[in-house]
């Protein structure tokens, strides 16, 4: 493997590690499927916070 390819791959891996963030698994989607009417613009989804602290969910 060439030196420039090793450097590029190392830079990509380092950038990915720096910009990765932790995720919270405290938010649960009620149900296993979301069924929506194709004629409607939106659908309501029920979310449940299983954690001890309040969390913000955005779309």
From TrEMBL:
Transmembrane segments: none annotated. Keywords: Signal. InterPro entries: Ig-like_fold, PapD-like_sf, Pili_assmbl_chaperone_N. GO terms for biological process: cell wall organization. One of its GO terms (cellular component) is outer membrane-bounded periplasmic space. Residues 27-58 form the Pili assembly chaperone N-terminal domain. Residues 1-25 form the signal peptide. It comes from the Bacteria. This is Fimbrial chaperone.
């Amino acid at each position: 493997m060439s030196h420039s390819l090793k450097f590029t791959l190392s830079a990509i891996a380092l950038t990915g590690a720096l910009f990765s963030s932790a995720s919270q698994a405290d938010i649960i989607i009620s149900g296993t499927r979301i069924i929506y009417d194709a004629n409607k613009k939106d659908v309501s989804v029920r979310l449940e916070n299983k954690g001890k602290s309040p969390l913000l969910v955005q779309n």
